[in-house]
Every structure is written in structure tokens, then in C-alpha cells.
């Protein structure tokens, strides 16, 4: 895939795997990210509302399977996350922006550079697809929907 002027090309899963991406790295990313996300002041309340404490192990396993399928080509994931997100009336751009900021920070800390870029690229495309589908589901106008802005990583108290 070619990049726009001034952008780096998108890393491939094969490049990330050569750099060390494996199921254990996916697991570390997922667990670290969701440990932080559940405590976050913006997205934490949504996670706590929709995923009961007792359901977290199964939820994390499903998310690991999702990322494994997306980045490693495993066949372990079977699910439909969109309907669950469509059922969250409070979900808006502020939640997607925070999710992405926390996710970027997590993968940048844990992963080698190409692998972090691959995770970031996929997460941004997923977030945009989700918000567009949610907006369509709500009957909102999409013609002038700008891309999500990048929120800086929230420090203490965020």
C-alpha cells in the first residue's frame, strides 16, 4: 500500500512478526491497555457499565483473539463487536479519541516500532469504522464527518 506524501508506509503483519509480534505480545498489549482503560475517567465508566467484573477474563480473551486474528492471522476470533457498540447510546467521539490515545501509548511502550505502528494503524481504522457505523445507525449526517482528532495521552488524573 502506498502512503500519502509525508507519511510513512503502513507496516505489514509480516514485518511486525519479524520484529517479534506474537501471541504473548498481543496478550501484554490487551491486558495492559484494558487495565488502564477500565480506570480511565472518560472510557472507564463505559467499560464498567457494559462489562461486569466477573466477565472481564472472557472479554479479554475475546479481544486477544480479535487482535490475534487481525495481526497474526489466527482463526480463533468469532464475534460481532459492532452490535454491542451500537447499543451504547452514550458512545461518542470523545470516547474513541481517548481509546485511541491510551492505545497508542500502550503499544508504543510495549511494542517495537513497526509493531506499534501496525497496532496504531489498525486501531485507528477500526475506530473510524465503528464511529461511522454508529453515526449511520443513529441517522446522523455523514457527509461532513471529519476524521477523529488525535487526543494526547492523558497524564495523571486523566
UniProtKB/TrEMBL annotation:
GO molecular function annotations of the record: heme binding; metal ion binding; oxygen binding
Q: Mind listing the UniProt keywords for this protein, alphabetically?
A: Heme, Iron, Metal-binding, Transport
Q: Which Pfam families match?
A: Bac_globin
Q: What is this protein called?
A: Hemoglobin
**Which organism encodes this protein?**
Pseudodonghicola xiamenensis
Supply the InterPro entries for this chain: Globin-like_sf, Globin/Proto, Hemoglobin_trunc
The record ties this protein, via CDD domains, to: TrHb3_P (cd08916)
Q: Which domain of life is it from?
A: Bacteria
Entry annotated with the keyword Metal-binding: yes
- Whether Methyltransferase counts among this entry's keywords is no
Query: Secretion signal: which residues?
Result: none
State the organism's lineage.
Answer: Bacteria, Pseudomonadati, Pseudomonadota, Alphaproteobacteria, Rhodobacterales
Amino acid at each position: 500500500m502506498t502512503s500519502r506524501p509525508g507519511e510513512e508506509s503502513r507496516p505489514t503483519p509480516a514485518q511486525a512478526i519479524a520484529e517479534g509480534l506474537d501471541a504473548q505480545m498481543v496478550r501484554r498489549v490487551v491486558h495492559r491497555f484494558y487495565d488502564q482503560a477500565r480506570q480511565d475517567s472518560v472510557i472507564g465508566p463505559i467499560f464498567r457499565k457494559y462489562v461486569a467484573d466477573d466477565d472481564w477474563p472472557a472479554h479479554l480473551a475475546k479481544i486477544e483473539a480479535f487482535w490475534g486474528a487481525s495481526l497474526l492471522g489466527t482463526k480463533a476470533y468469532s464475534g460481532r463487536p459492532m452490535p454491542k457498540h451500537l447499543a451504547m447510546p452514550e458512545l461518542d467521539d470523545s470516547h474513541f479519541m481517548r481509546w485511541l490515545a491510551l492505545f497508542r501509548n500502550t503499544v508504543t511502550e510495549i511494542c517495537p516500532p513497526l509493531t506499534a505502528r501496525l497496532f496504531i494503524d489498525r486501531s485507528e481504522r477500526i475506530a473510524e469504522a465503528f464511529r461511522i457505523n454508529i453515526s449511520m445507525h443513529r441517522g446522523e449526517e455523514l457527509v461532513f464527518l471529519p476524521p477523529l482528532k488525535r487526543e494526547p495521552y492523558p497524564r495523571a488524573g486523566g
